[in-house]
Every structure is written in C-alpha cells, then in structure tokens.
Amino acid sequence: MRLLLALGAIWAVALAASEDVTVNNFKVGILAKDQQPDAENLKTVAIFSKLPSGLTADASQRLYVSFNVVKKADNAKVKPQQVFLRFVAPSGEDVVLVVNPDANGNYIYDSVLRTAAKSFRNLSGQFKISLLVGDVTIKNPINWQFADIDAALPTAYEPTPKSQQVRYEPMEEITHVFRQPEKRPSALISDAFTIIVLAPFVILFVLWARIGINFQNAPASPFVPIFHIGLAGIFGLYILFWIQFDMFETLKYLSVLGFLTFVAGNRVLRAIAEGKQKSE
Question: 86, 54 in Cβ contact below 8 A?
Fold first, then answer.
C-alpha cells in the first residue's frame, strides 16, 4: 500500500512539472529614498537580455525590481516556491535575497541599500545581479543575469568581544557609596543604658563592702590568685571590648584567659572539697 502511495505521489509530481513559465513586465531601477517608481526612473528589461548600462547606487538609495512570473501557455500568473535575487561579487562570493509576491501575485523587491547591506557580509563594489526562479512544477527553471550594479555599501560594524578588547587609557575610578550609618540615640539614653548595665557591679561591690569578703575558707593553693586574676582579667576584657577591641580580638584573648580561669577554678574547687573531707 505504501509503495502505491509513493508511486502515486511521484506520478502526480511528474504530471504537475509540465508548465513552462516566463518573466514579463520586468523593471529595474535605482530610486531615491522617497521617490515613487514610474516609467521615467525604471528601465524595462526583456527576458534573458541584460541592461545595457550598469546601475550605480549609494547606501541611501533604493534598489527597485518588479516583475511577474506567468505561464507561457495562457499568461496566467504563478507563484513559484523559490524566487531569489542573487548578487555575485568579483571574488565569487554571492548573496541571495528572497523576493516575495504581493496580494496580486506581483513580485517586488524594494529596499534601501543601507538596510540590505546587513545581508552582504561586508561586501561592497561591483555585483552581477541574477534572477532565480524554481519550483517542482516548473519545467524550465530560470537563472538570468539581468544587470550589473556598482553599490557603495557601508561596512557592517562588528563589535569586538569585550574579552578581546585592548584598552590603553586609564579606566574610570570606581567609587563605592556606603550605606549611611543609622541614627544613634541621644546622649541621655546612652548614659541611662550604661548606668543600668553597670548597676549590678555597683551593687556587688556595695554588698561586699557591707558583708565583707571571707578569705578564711580559701585553700592554700597557688591556683586561688590565678583564678581571681583570670576572673578580673575577663571583666577587664569586656570593658576593652566596649571601648577598643573588636569581636575577633576579644575572642582571641578570651580563649586564653577563659582557659586559665577554668583550670584554676577547677583546682580551687578540688582543693576546697579535699579540705572539707579532711576536716570531717
């Protein structure tokens, strides 16, 4: 079944590819940007002939080409699948542009050369212009060079990637804008907060002064003064943290003082416990 369908499709294409086509009403010209095409500024070229004089245009002008593709038998318009204008440079490089039909089946190419230059890959100068027409239903595809053109096209700008750019001038100075510091509380609030924080220490010293400090139960151990000196050093370190040190400096010194104070305090407690056992 598939073989029959394939053979039927091939036979349909073979029957359809029996049309002879031609090009008529072929007109070409160089127009100004806002100029309307008419008989004065367009030249008619017969099929498979060449425009006697070449075309000359700059980037601000328009290339205008119009034509119809018709059947030879009844002069009816057709719309082939492939209709192109081909520009060939002396170096052999070519540029192919698509020509689309309008609603009435007329083929018109009308473009400012500065706009079309994007498709020419930095090519400029002399070009041979050919019309290419082809379709599976056309028996005689057309490849017709109808004119030469000297086009002064602008060179397309291709920016250099940033990674490949070389800059010799000094770069702009980078300035950072830091966030403005938050508004600090008034001096009255700060002083009141300081007094509240220091109040427990004041109360401690007042109570010590009234009750007294009992050194009688302190064991005869060299770790007793080390413990008290370490404890006093920790309090002093907290004060320095408030007025001078940052957190990292404070932690660095606290790790040493804290270790010594912990070891000394442990030995003091052990000595007190041993003293109570002996007294009992």
Answer: no
- For residue 170, being part of any structural domain is answered with no
State whether 223 and 118 are in the same domain. no
- Cβ-Cβ contacts under 8 Å for 124 (sequence gap 6 or more): 117, 151, 152, 153, 154, 155
Task: Look at residues 102, 60, 61, 65 and name the one whose alpha carbon lies nearest to residue 87.
Answer: 65
Q: What is the pLDDT of residues 225-269, one digit of tens each?
A: 888 888 888 888 888 888 888 888 889 999 999 999 999 888 888
Tokens of 133: 């027409």
Q: Rounded to the nearest 5°, which phi and psi values hold at 129?
A: -105, 130
Query: Model-level pTM?
Result: 0.51
Residue 5 lies in a domain: no
Select from 109, 129, 152 the last residue of a domain: 152
Q: Provide the number of structural domains found in the chain.
A: 2
Residue 147: in which H helix or E strand, if any?
Answer: strand 142-152
Cα–Cα distance, 108 to 101 (Å, whole number):
7
Alpha-carbon 106 to chain mean position:
42
Summarize pLDDT for 36-81 with one digit per residue, the tens: 989 888 999 999 999 988 899 988 899 999 999 999 988 899 999 8
Residue finishing a domain among 118, 135, 152 = 152
Sign of the CA dihedral with 160 first, then 164, 168, and 171 last: positive
